[in-house]
Amino acid sequence: MPVRELTMREALREALAEEMERDPSVFLLGEDIQDPMGGSYKVTLGLSTRFGTRRVRNAPISEAAIVGAGVGAAVTGSRPVVEVMYVDFLEIAMDQLVSQAAKIRYMSGGQVAVPLTVRCQGGPGRSAGPQHSQLLEAWFAHVPGLKVVVPSTPRDGKALLKAAIRDPDPVVFFEPNVLYNSRGPVPDPGADEVAPLGKADVKRPGRDVTVVTYGAMVAMALEAAERLAREDGVEAEVIDLRTVSPWDRETVLASFRKTRALVVAHQAVRQGGMGAEIAATVYEEALDEVDVEIARVGARFAPTPFAPELERYVVPGVEEIVAAARATLERAGRAGLLARR
Amino acid sequence: MSGVAFDPAWIVELYRRMVRIRAFEEKAAELYQKGALPGFLHSSVGQEAVPVGVCAWLERDDLITSTHRGHGHILAKGADPARMFLELYGSEEGYNRGKGGSMHIMDFSIGVLGANGIVGAGIPIAAGAGISLQNRGSDRVVACFFGDGAVTTGAFHEGVNMAAIWELPVVFVCENNQYAESTPHRTVDRAPDLTVRAQGYGIPGELVDGNDLFAVLEAAQRAVERARRGGGPTLLECRTYRWYGHYIGDPAVYRSDEEVASWKARDPLRRVAAWLLEQGALDEEGEARLRAEVEAEIEAAAEAGARGRRPAPESALEDVYAG
Hints:
The complex is a heterodimer of chains A (about 350) and B (about 325). Chain A has helices at about 10-20, 45-50, 65-75, 95-100, 105, 135-140, 155-165, 215-230, 250-260, 275-285, 310-315, 320-330, 335-340; strands at about 5, 25-30, 55-60, 80-85, 115-120, 145-150, 170-175, 185, 200-205, 210-215, 235-240, 245, 260-270, 295-300. Chain A is of the alpha/beta class. Chain A has a 7-stranded mixed sheet with strand order 3-2-4-5-7-6-12, sandwiched between helices. In chain B, the strands form 2 sheets. Chain B has a 5-stranded parallel sheet with strand order 1-2-3-7-6, with helices on both faces. A two-stranded antiparallel ribbon of chain B has the order 4-5. Chain B is built from 11 helices and 7 strands. In chain B, helix 1 packs antiparallel against helix 10 (about 270-280) and helix 2 runs parallel beside helix 8 (about 215-230). Chain B has a single domain, classed as Rossmann fold (3-Layer(aba) Sandwich). The chains are: A alpha/beta (about 350), B alpha/beta (about 325). Chains A and B meet through helix 3, helix 4 and helix 5 of A and helix 5 and helix 6 of B.
């Protein structure tokens, strides 16, 4: 098969177009998504021209109604894909997402499904400031009924977005802004590749330490793993969760039982983050079997500031992952051993 | 009181629906006060003309969204009172398998997209249902019920505006029962009535006597037909009153006995009954028989509710996800 390289932006656009082509009940709703603008980050560029303005609806600045209308459409036979321009703006639509979308199937006693996809983008790394840089996936992972997906590569972006649209449940789909221009191989459109939700992907196998991460931090974890290999002779296994909720316990636990050391890394705030959940789960599940060495990497407890050096101070990157892996192995008493390898 | 244009036999049927709502609410309140029903209970006694007058124009596959005070809407749309009581009791056989209760009754098979525990939340949902219908080229419509309390929410503004700009097939029905919990509506809204807001959204608005079934029927007919033929949404404000407090057990210290009495004197049921007697569509005996029939039906439904199968505790983990 010829290798095609696409950016994350192009891969996501292809996913939307293919699903709209495949299923007439799929439609898009969001701010500034029609041509010629084609979305604040151009993901939907060309789609209103191709599919018309009823299937690509330019919404007023009304986040509660955008998500709420998505809920109403989802329970009446449509498969809406709504776009909320920034992760931060989901806060304006919290009721519709948390008390409506997430609960209608349950509250109805299983009468209906809510096949709603909520796309939004954001995250740190661009000096976007405190109100345009948040990573709030842990909030939504706390809500039974929602699924939370964060892709890390163009290939996964496309295959996961297709899965989210076809999924019968509400999916919050977080697109890391810093990845929109990242390039990677993506199978041809005819391949119709769909990645299963709830399934992690081992992006780099390794025997010494497990690094669990997702989204923009996957590339950093891979870079950290290269450094550990080069400088310490340590082989890190990098697990990309892909679906943050419900997350793939089996893959994480199996890796931990192999490496006996775990680093959970995300750029979201450390306190109350997914790292806490994953670390606690591994601790509970694996406590009786092996020595437990676990470290968490996450943002310091401050809003994401504007100035680049302030932002970098708050938000972790490659350095912090390397340091956490080393500390974990040291605590496990394996640092010297590994250095002599 | 108008109503001359309506077939008295049809009005007898609508009157039966109003009596059914009242009987359901009174029975539910009685059971709640005896401690038989868990949770909260919000009664719509006094407001029966609005749901019946609006739903009179809806078919089975038209849609409604409802509120925490939703029993009336749901019954008017054709729900089974026994399954509603089963849900009020938290039975496995209730509409929501005991997972929703009074505030969340849903019946998608007859287009009831749900009562809703969050004030105003049904308004954007109704707009979204309208998008589904419009995208499919359907001539079905959505009736969106909400109270005066919802009018001050952001969801109201966003949802009505969205329906207006895309001419979605939605009829927005505000049941202005004068109080948002304990707060008089006039103290939180400077607009004299909702027609002013309708004008702001560029859609028709009507102020309706919500205790007059015929006034509701006439306004709702215009609004439903307009939505059905693709003319877009209408905003109806139906002025009415809830006889009980915000919830069953609320002593309603925020309103006077005189005020309550003045509204009870405008009982929407009595007004329809008087018209039917005047028209000769029912005599007093026939009216009493109708009430007795409905009360027996509701009594049987309540008994069925009490006998419902209790849910297995572990069923609490079912239906969190569909897949």
